[in-house]
């Protein structure tokens, strides 16, 4: 009898776990549905056009369902920004894995900046909402804090890359140098995203050249 009860309890727990997993999957799908609709809307209207009722209509959800997942339009903007920043970080991480080769001669390492710049900008320019989201990150006090935290996270993640490119740099200088480099890159990326399409290629070339020259210059600094 005990065995039967135990089996029934296990079966009941399995059903609950399956139901919970199903609900979690459905919730993730709904959130993605909402964020996709929100990105499409802000591309058309800007952040100021992100109204909850219009978003619910575009996402084909009851307004109550929308409020269940996001209490306000600002919470949606934040969620879009977080997803966007995570995507950029993933793109950059994959490219770093490709370019960092311990056997590469030091005098060639700075030139890997070219592929990093082009890969990230290719991703951003193929994501229609990128410019609007980056503008929000820089203009909203709340999102600016998120942007600064993301920059700090990326700077820490890129410190090994800078050590690889310029192994003679003093260790204590690397964190601040990486922060300054990233802030300069982000400012230029925003300029490129807002520039006419026919200027993109030349601007990207210039940004890649600037980063390469910066890294080559840092290689000359002695420990």
TrEMBL record:
Domain of life, per lineage: Bacteria
Record keywords, A-Z: DNA-binding, Transcription, Transcription regulation
SUPFAM superfamilies linked: Homeodomain-like
Domain HTH tetR-type per the UniProt entry, residue ranges: 28-88
InterPro entries: Homeodomain-like_sf, HTH-type_TetR-like_transc_reg, HTH_TetR, TetR_C_15
DNA-binding region, residue intervals: 51-70
Keyword Transcription regulation found: yes
Protein name (database record): HTH tetR-type domain-containing protein
Lineage of origin: Bacteria, Pseudomonadati, Pseudomonadota, Alphaproteobacteria, Hyphomicrobiales
